[in-house]
Amino acid sequence: MTSVPSTVGIVASGEDVLNDAVFWVDAGRSSISNGALTNLGTGGSTLNAVFGNTTGVDSFDPALLTHTGTNYLYLPGGSNWATTPDAAALDITGDLEIVVRVALSDYTPTASQILCSKRASGQYSWQLFINTSGTVGFTVTTDGSTQITSSSSVPSAGTFVDGTTYWLKATRTAATGVCTWQYAADQATEPTSWTTLAANVNGASGNVFSGTAALDVGGITGGSMDGRFYRCIVRNGIGGTTVFDADFTTGITSGAQTTFTESSANAATVTINRATSGRKSVAVTRPILLFGTDDYLEVADNDLLDFDAAQPFTVMVATRQWATITSQGVPIAKKTGNGSTGIGWLIRNAVGTPADTVFDTYDGTTATNRTMPTSKTSGTLAVLAGVASASQLTAYYNSTAGVATTRQAGSYANAEVMRIGRLSGASTQYVDMELVAAAVWRRALNANEIATIVNRYT
Question: Which helix (H) or strand (E) holds 455?
Answer without folding.
Answer: helix 447-457
